[in-house]
Design a protein that fits this description.
Pfam families: LCM. It contains 13 helices and seven strands. It has about 300 residues and is an alpha/beta fold.
Length: about 300
């Protein structure tokens, strides 16, 4: 699924690190619209950055885009916060409804299996990722004394050499069980062949009333048409990180994409929807703009 020469093959994912930093900054926010409950994210930061996050300096840098991290795209801080909150809600609903299993593709520094462990009575959580990123995360857990939940199963995979289906079966992910599949910040990094094989695996394993949540970018973004808020900056960031985007969905073509994958739409959220849902105050005023390049899709099998 990963192309030869990409950063993720020989280093931890920079975009995974970027997402973790945003979640850590968000945890220390005082403003409720910005604040998330990812109390694990600060523990995954390098130690020298924790005081920066606690004082609010990190969130200030993200919000005001003062060249740290380099070239922070407009609205990406808000987008990652909104995406985290929305997928948190989908995850919580799945474990509350006692789904059999949850599979997180490209889990990065995700911590939902730990954060929501007290709510989880029976659901097995499978985290799938490239070896170096997953190893870095597990090592950081151990260094910070974060107890690994026995319900969380880590699957390390070299997508260039190993079969995804075989790997899932080897680690106990079962077919025809009610499952939630999470592809957070992933689809845009896959090529067309990898998208087809990934959604084929979902179709093959998913039991009745399974669910899928994923985000994607518009195809026009890949063409550099610069139609959306923060578009040119976010493209520069992923290219500079040697993690370029490869896949998008044409605006207005989501329904046909889902139909081809045997999925039915539950809801779709673009940047306007995310602003309305997560950044509207009591007076009905939108207090922040979300990067316009992404959409989140929640679908039923």
């Amino acid at each position: 699924m990963e192309k030869t020469g990409k950063r993720i093959e020989n280093k931890t994912s920079r975009t995974a690190e970027f997402t973790c930093m945003i979640r850590a900054a968000s945890f220390y926010e005082k403003e409720t619209h910005y604040k998330s409950n990812d109390y694990i994210a600060p523990k995954l930061l390098p130690k020298f950055m924790v005081p920066i996050a606690k004082t609010g300096a990190l969130k200030y840098l993200f919000k005001n885009r003062l060249n740290f991290p380099k070239d922070v795209p407009k609205g990406m801080y808000e987008y990652v916060i909104a995406r985290t909150k929305f997928i948190d809600s989908v995850f919580q609903k799945a474990i509350s409804n006692e789904f059999d299993q949850i599979l997180i593709f490209g889990a990065g520094f995700d911590s939902r299996g730990i954060r929501f462990a007290d709510l989880n009575k029976k659901t097995k959580i499978f985290e799938l990722d490239a070896p170096l990123t997953q190893e870095a995360k597990i090592n950081q857990f151990k260094k910070r004394g974060i107890e690994l939940n026995p319900n969380v199963i880590f699957i390390s995979i070299d997508f260039n050499k190993e079969s995804l289906e075989d790997k899932l079966i080897e680690f106990g992910f079962q077919k025809n069980k009610r499952s939630l599949f999470i592809l957070e910040g992933l689809t845009m990094y896959l090529d067309h062949e990898a998208i087809e094989s990934t959604f084929h695996i979902i179709d093959q394993f998913a039991g009745e009333n399974s669910e899928v949540v994923f985000d994607y970018v518009y195809s026009s973004v890949l063409r550099g048409e610069n139609l959306y808020y923060g578009e040119s900056e976010v493209l520069k960031q992923v290219n500079d990180a040697n993690e370029p985007w490869s896949f998008g969905i044409e605006k207005g073509k989501l329904d046909s994409f889902l139909k081809d994958k045997n999925l039915k739409l539950i809801c779709s959220l673009n940047s306007d929807d995310l602003e309305d849902k997560f950044f509207k105050n009591e007076q009905g005023t939108i207090i922040a703009k979300v990067n316009g390049t992404h959409c989140i899709t929640y679908a039923l099998k």
